[in-house]
Design brief:
alpha/beta; 295 residues; five-stranded mixed β-sheet; six-stranded mixed β-sheet; 9 helices; 2 domains; homodimer; Nucleotidyltransferase, domain 5
């Protein structure tokens, strides 16, 4: 069976996975999404977890990206050093089932006292360029558990920086002194915009965060606004980092709609324009482009 | 029984409590410390938890401060608005057992879009001034789950700011992507000082934190240094907030020795001088000063 006859593209993250059946024409004909992320797979359980995907989408080769290639994943796939483009990834797959299942390498940066790594988002970005969804030279924000700010130059990822915004928000909601106040969903409302404005100019998030508790206790903020405000605060600080790297004033925000709309709202507070791109569509395009190198 | 004959001073925090038996001369004759903080007391369980203290230290009146007076505590004690001094606290105790058990109010600030609250640390600070351990006009750093930067002017607390450093470090160690790398104890070593220097100048902690993971994965930092580096990063950012408020270049660092020594090391990185003061000694002095107002 050749990859060109069809395969399954898997975006396998820490807490979620999305798998897409791709037909001979490179079109996505069926998708599944569940919460069987890398952390939920027991040691030695990846072959079975992969066959579970095949049971649902067909007995096809698997092309995988994301944390499935991390120290916590199936095998540790290498990092390709930036600058890098799509042509650098195809020849460096990690084959976990010969000819039948491969993991796409991640990207790394180590220079000038800065270190960073990425796994999975790069496939979406290269895919979006390959499919003409975004220009070959652009600046991308990719929200998620770990938001990525990425400079793309002529199809190459030349620089990027990760901000732990999603993980931090999740931790604050689950435990600690603010958790009881963060029960609402974050929305791009007035409290969110106030938080984003504050976050953009904040000297230290760890100080601004405690102040949320004090404002609620002292009656200066409705409890129901705390989640949106904290989300705004974290995303505003995140944006402060990203805008420092941006080479364009137009920002492409790629990912899941519920997150891209929050980042788009914060971007507006910062006076920049943003365009939202669906991450799944971009991922499929990237996987198809890599699969074409494999037969 | 009069308070002047002896009482028990209780510093009852979120996760720990310390109780000190004070004799007729105002001297601490016996202390206990355990992890029966406010969060470990079931609803309605505070009278029993208080009697447990009396079983250990004697059947005496209790003078309490800290989170025992918060929404999660025995009763919610009021906040006294700053500027405030010792004389403002004594008349505003919350009596939970008439004549036998009282909670000292906390302090609050709400002005210029800034809100903050404090419970327990103020007793230590007023006590240290009353006992002549620190000058009546000074600038104090009080590390803990929530570090406090406090400006004291002529015996009054006139301004303060809270930074969630301890809670953030604790959350990062317990869960999330960095947890597996933060298994060592934080020490004021070279990695700590490097982190503190970086934290002092960091644009966003949420970006610097992810970089720790990348540096370890890429071999740019030994895994064993990650905890000290992250501690330095958080304390450095904390110090950046505090130095912005400081009216003195000499800083008093009050609290538990294992934390004050880390803050003292970060203070040295920032080029400031610091003096460490034991928080328990200061707490006893503050409780004695308040108890003297009660008979």
């Amino acid at each position: 069976m050749r990859w060109a006859d069809g395969f399954i593209a898997v975006d396998w993250g820490t807490t979620n996975r999305r798998a897409h059946r791709i037909d001979h024409a490179g079109a996505c004909v069926s998708s599944i999404e569940d919460d069987l992320g890398v952390l939920s797979v027991p040691p030695g359980g990846f072959p079975a977890a992969a066959n579970d995907i095949r049971d649902k989408l067909g007995d096809l080769p698997l092309l995988m990206a994301g944390m499935v290639g991390s120290t916590r994943g199936w095998v540790e796939a290498p990092y390709v050093s930036c600058p890098a483009d799509l042509d650098d990834l195809g020849p460096r797959l990690s084959w976990v089932e010969p000819g039948r299942a491969a993991i796409i390498p991640g990207l790394s940066i180590l220079a000038d006292g800065r270190a960073d790594v990425m796994r999975g988002e790069e496939v979406q970005m290269f895919g979006a360029v390959a499919a003409g969804l975004i220009p070959a030279t652009c600046f991308i924000c990719h929200p998620g558990t770990h938001n990525k700010w990425v400079a793309v130059d002529n199809g190459k990822i030349v620089d990027f920086r990760t901000v732990m915004t999603g993980e931090m928000f999740d931790m604050l909601r689950k435990r600690g002194i603010l958790a009881e106040m963060l029960t609402e969903e974050a929305k791009p409302d007035a409290a969110f915009r106030e938080g984003a404005q504050r976050g953009l100019n904040a000297s230290a998030l760890t100080a601004e965060l405690f102040s949320v508790r004090a404002r609620v206790l002292l009656g200066d903020m409705p409890r129901a606004s705390a989640a949106s405000y904290v989300s705004g605060l974290l995303i505003g600080a995140d944006l402060g980092v990203g805008l420092g790297l941006a080479r364009q004033s137009d920002i492409i925000i790629m990912g899941r709609g519920e997150l891209t709309r929050l980042y788009a709202a914060a971007t507006a507070v910062a006076g920049c324009s943003a365009r939202e791109i669906d991450g799944s569509t971009a991922f499929v395009a990237g996987a198809v482009a890599i699969a074409r190198m494999l037969d």
